Fold this protein.
Amino acid sequence: QKEVEQNSGPLSVPEGAIASLNCTYSDRGSQSFFWYRQYSGKSPELIMSIYSNGDKEDGRFTAQLNKASQYVSLLIRDSQPSDSATYLCAVSVSGGGNKLTFGTGTQLKVEL
Amino acid sequence: GAVVSQHPSRVICKSGTSVKIECRSLDFQATTMFWYRQFPKQSLMLMATSNEGSKATYEQGVEKDKFLINHASLTLSTLTVTSAHPEDSSFYICSARSGQGAIDEQFFGPGTRLTVL
């Protein structure tokens, strides 16, 4: 079983719609959760971090964490073509030296 | 804030040569830096964790004698790929973590694309 799992996609949504990206993780000791955006040929860019159960909103982005279900998601409201990228879910385990374990990423395509 | 730079951004070298990649935190002191490798269509794979003033910790399967890491200061870590071969061609990305607070966010450099001929 992979430690961090994501659907590879592509996930296609029309412009203006809500894009929902999902991630599950296997280690119950995971403490910190991150969403990174990666454009083709570029390095990852931190979008959101979340540490406690519930929702965290930042502009058009909302991260949701459910530790009981070992599930973290990212919602992108009013999707724009510029949001088209690969979204990487990353998880850090307490006492793990702050190492991040990445999922394989979900490719998002926002269509005009 | 939290800007990380890498140099060079792209390098092409002949098989058997060594290549050094620099990673710098520009506006903060990074107690820990991480080196990743990413092959096409794949996710980031952690190669090693670099702590200032101490030896790097390598992930399983990563040859420490081939991938030399030096973290001589709080703002600079270097990765040297020794005796590079075509299979080492990849996108190498560093990240840096500030020692401030409990938040363990990592900020990534722009990456170095290595092509070994």
